[in-house]
Design a protein that fits this description.
single chain, mainly alpha, two-stranded antiparallel ribbon, globular, binds geranylgeranyl diphosphate
């Protein structure tokens, strides 16, 4: 498949960005649609099944992986690669792999033992559409498939490095650990954070989200950079972007839970407050949460603007993430 060029809307001005980047900012929805058009057929090919497939599990895998998500993490892989001079085809296995880890985490997060949700991406959650045991196995299989996809699809040295990056991001000190600590507060297994002042609670939330949401976002960007052969300086810029973008994304997610529209968001909203969960709006208030998210998004945009017009999608995404309604 030929490398996919993302269209740009010229004329969007921003005095904080270099002129060549500000004048090349694309429309994010159009850009994300192009990512979906590139990634969804790849995902489809990864879950065609075989003579050895278990019918029910295979149906659950397709259901969870091909459900209509935003494909933000694949976008970060592809746009990260592009920003470092790489092409989408070389980054394609990594784009598919991060979406598999993400899809698995959503399936397991929705389980009765965790968030107990019945709606995800606008459709019944995997355990509702199938059953709990199948949903657990589906998540397990998606996780293994992610590493198979990386190992089989990338050149060996990049694959080895990529598997390490993804394993760390998905592991006990990152995605899983962040989820464990989030549950620990919600279930009352740790209580000192509830007695902490606002600054202490913000520190705790950052520590959770850096791992639960941020690690996979950063891994997506790093994988994109690796497939493009990026040097340490460019990888560092992607990492700085990811740290600021990831937190802005999480704050926006908290705001959507507090204020968003269920039909647009595609999942139940208002659940966080009902469970006494620590969130940015509950700790900082809506206005300060929005200000912080906007500051972080602006920081993310400025960080990668130095990579020039090839990073225009990343810049535009950072600006969009705080304004999104889903
Ligand atoms: C079960 C190990 C394990 C981890 C679960 C992903 C996760 C950790 C929990 C999901 C709950 C949540 C609201 C997380 C914060 C932000 C987030 C990851 C939102 C979902 O990502 P989007 O908005 O979803 O990119 P789509 O459906 O568009 O892909």
């Amino acid at each position: 498949m030929a490398s996919c060029q993302v269209s740009r809307d010229p004329g969007v001005g921003d005095p904080t960005l270099p002129g060549d980047v500000a004048s090349a900012l694309p429309d994010v929805r159009t850009a994300i649609d192009r990512v979906k058009a590139f990634v969804d057929p790849l995902l489809e090919r990864c879950v065609t099944g075989s003579a050895e497939s278990s019918d029910r599990l295979h149906a659950a895998l397709r259901y969870a992986l091909l459900a209509p998500g935003k494909r933000l993490r694949p976008a970060l892989v592809l746009w990260g690669a592009q920003a470092c001079g790489g092409d989408w085809n070389s980054a394609a296995p990594a784009a598919a792999a991060v979406e598999m880890i993400h899809a698995y985490s959503l399936v397991h997060d929705d389980l009765p033992a965790m968030d107990d949700d019945d709606l995800r991406r606008g459709i019944p959650t995997c355990h509702r559409a199938f059953d709990e045991a199948t949903a657990i196995l589906c998540g397990d299989a998606l996780q293994a498939l992610a590493f198979e996809t990386l190992a089989a699809g990338l050149e060996p040295a990049v694959a080895a490095r990529g598997c390490l990056v993804l394993a760390r991001a998905a592991g006990a000190d990152a995605l899983v650990g962040g989820q464990a600590d989030d549950l620990a507060v919600e279930r009352g297994w740790v209580t000192d954070v509830l007695a902490a002042d606002a600054a202490g609670q913000v520190d705790w939330m950052e520590r959770i989200h850096r791992r639960k949401t941020g690690a996979l976002i950063n891994a997506s960007l790093e994988l994109g950079g690796l497939t493009a052969g990026a040097d340490a300086e460019r990888l560092g810029m992607l990492a700085a972007y990811g740290r600021a973008f990831g937190l802005a994304f999480q704050i926006a997610d908290d705001m959507l839970d507090a204020e968003g529209d269920e039909a647009a968001v595609g999942k139940r909203v208002g659940k966080d407050a009902g469970r006494g969960k620590l969130t940015y709006p509950t700790v900082l208030g809506a206005a300060e949460s929005r200000r912080l998210a906007e500051e972080l998004a602006a920081r993310a945009a400025t960080t990668v603007a130095g990579l020039g017009p090839a990073a225009a999608e990343l810049v535009a995404l950072a600006r969009w993430v705080v304004a999104r309604d889903h």
